Amino acid sequence: MSGLPLLSGPPPVLESTRADATSCRKCSKDFNFLLARPRRCNHCGYMYCHSCTDFQALMPRTGAEMGYDAVNVCGYCIEYLTITAGGRAHLRSLTLPKLKKYISAYNIKGAERAVEKNDLIEAIMAAKGDNGCLTPAHESYYRKYSVPDRSNVPRRGLFSRSSASTNTEPPPPPPRPHQTPTYEFPRPDLAPDIPLRPTSQPSTQQQHSSPPPRPATSRPAYHNPNDQYHSQTHFPSPQHAGPPVAPRATRPNQGPRPSRSSHNLNAQANGPPPRARAASSAHPPPPPGPPSVPPPSLDQLLSMTSESVGALPVHALKALLFANHVNLGQGALEKSDLVKKVIDLVEEERRTRERRRLEEEAEEEARIEQQRVMMEQFQRQQRERAERERAEAAAAAQDEHPTPDDSASPPSAPTESETEFIAAATPSPPPLPKPKAIHVERTGLCVICQDEEANIAIVDCGHLAMCRECSELVMNSSRECPLCRTRIVTEARLLRIFKT
């Protein structure tokens, strides 16, 4: 009996749930003693057939005996009982319309001020009692107002179907829409606005001549198009009726008649065309909704506060996470979860940019220090060269004008000890300093640009080999992993990795 919903107790017997029902409340099947016996639902208390009460729930035993018994419930109640027995995880997996329908069926208070899905879940959890079921007031409201009643639908019993098919008459045709009567000529091909045929073909005119005119008492009066509407039942009296109209073949020529185009123009001027009248009678189209706001970029997010991020709509949050390859996770996500993921993305991006700024400053300081050392070494070499050139010039001048003492005694060569002393006294150039590194070793770089840290992983092959900018370049060009050439079908196969 594991997995069955729990009942709070046997339902009360109300006036509307007595056993005198003649048909099933759900499928309107007629009850009879042999084939379709009624059975009561143990939650709402109404009578149903055996097919509509083929669901089970746990009923607590009464008296000193402990435990539960499996009893039958109807198809209406099993859906709501399953929601009642579910926990927060089960309620979070349901859709918003289903939760709102459940709250409306049991008249649960506190849900009218709900803003998010968690508010509805908290209202449902607060309405439960200590036994895990709803309070008797909620169940009484459900039995009285929320159980559908389809017993008034035409019954489909075994004998009522044949009798109903023989006794029922076809429904009357729907009334035709009221239309303004217009005058129609008995023969459209001989309408008055058609020009007369030449008189050289009397046999043809006689063949197509109109039949004799009807009596004036049975013919409706001809109205001018400019006249207002008159009912079709108004016939002229015999004493006021004019003489019958002669057939077309025997009518004398009465002058030129208006052409078809002038008649149509007059008709269009007197009233709007049917298409225009239909368009004017229809409802005006609804105004277009407000244009969707594009999601902000990462640069804009860095300057926004947490409250501003929480005010963004859900579609903008999802678009941001999808554009930055952040996995949304399994199951239904609340807006608070989306906001937390976006805030984590912003914090990670802020730390990455700060780390990049520090690295760039360190590299710039190392470059400046290296240039300073190189400049000092170059200046020292220039000074040594200038001193050597002066010494050589002085020695050459002394050779050209030798003194008596110099000629008598040539200069003695320096001894080995004097050479070592001079070499020790001469300062050696300092070694070039190595640039300072902020980190011990920069590993995990993007294999494409070798400048940024790799934070985009490919789900299909598992390689963490690209940064965000290079992943966009790859998706716009080859759409392959840069290491193993695995095909990247969609951007959803890229996953953002947050390093801690």
Automatic annotation (TrEMBL):
UniProt-listed Pfam families: FYVE, zf-C3HC4_3
Domain FYVE-type: 18-82
Low complexity: bias regions: 197-209, 405-416
Domain RING-type, residue spans: 446-485
Residues of the signal peptide: none
Biased composition (Basic and acidic residues): 381-404
Source organism, top-level taxon: Eukaryota
Record field: compositional bias (Pro residues): 169-178, 283-297
SUPFAM superfamilies recorded: FYVE/PHD zinc finger, RING/U-box
Feature: compositional bias, Polar residues: 225-236, 259-269
Region described as Disordered: 148-300, 376-433
PROSITE patterns: ZF_FYVE, ZF_RING_2
Cited InterPro entries: RING-FYVE_E3_ubiquitin-ligase, Znf_FYVE, Znf_FYVE-rel, Znf_FYVE_PHD, Znf_RING, Znf_RING/FYVE/PHD
Keyword entries, A-Z: Metal-binding, Zinc, Zinc-finger
An MF annotation (GO) of this entry: zinc ion binding
Record protein name field: RING-finger domain-containing protein
Organism: Mycena indigotica
Lineage of source species: Eukaryota, Fungi, Dikarya, Basidiomycota, Agaricomycotina
